[in-house]
Amino acid sequence: MKELVILENIPLKRQAAVKKVLIEEKKLVLDDFFKVQEAHLRFEQFNGEMSPLIRRFSLERGNSVAILVFNLDTQKIILVDQFRYPAYSKGHGWITEIIAGMIDPGESPEESARRELHEESGMIISTLEHINTFFTSPGGSSEQIFLYYAEVSGEFAKYNKTGGLLDHGEDITSFEISLEEALGRIKAGEIRDAKTIIGILWLENRQLKLQK
After folding, report:
1. What backbone phi and psi angles, to 5 degrees, belong to 182?
2. d(Cα 29, Cα 126) in Å, to the nearest integer?
């Protein structure tokens, strides 16, 4: 059965560009922890005509949250190290990143952010500032990351050096790093996680604005 999708939430100035997608066939080819959807579809081209029939796949892994935590007492960023199997084929597999995790069913992004902070570091955060929401790899995955910023100090800046859910196979260590060192690690290719790079560069821009 064909499915006609009208994209309604595009800003008005862009609605004329792409607004129709005709789904000819859609099915799950993998239904596990992650899901992979196969679709045969046509989409409205920029010239106004429908495209030829194309075949596309989408990794459906749900949305995620990520939190850049800044310790006001030490003026440092709190980061974590953990093993990420998909990155293993491109290196040793241990990735330096900001605290992050998947949004559970029924949770708001803010609720997920607070839960992940507590699970991975033991911290309890009251105030979160939304930085942005973005796709991680829109050519292959529907996942969006809700990126937040949080400042901590005093008792709220205390965190566990190790954390994560053991029954989920998590083994996480937390540490602090200055903004300058974090930027140096990005330039040296030692921090390669996209959400972490976005958050750190956002913080650099924020600090520059505060200095003016």
Report:
1. -60, -45
2. 41
Averaged pLDDT score across all residues of the chain: 90
d(CA 125, CA 116) in angstroms, rounded, equals 10
Provide the token pair at 99.
Answer: 């605290």
- Domains of the chain (ranges; CATH) run 3-60 (no CATH), 64-211 (3.90.79.10)
CB 193 within 8 Å of CB 97? yes
Q: Where are the alpha helices (DSSP H) in 27-151?
A: 85-88, 109-121
What is the per-residue pLDDT across 146-174, written as a single tens digit (0 to 9) for each? 999 999 999 989 998 887 766 666 788 99
Question: pTM for this structure?
Answer: 0.88
Give 166's DSSP letter. G
Say if residues 208 and 156 touch (Cβ distance below 8 Å): no
Taking 50 as the threshold, does the pLDDT of residue 9 lie above it?
no
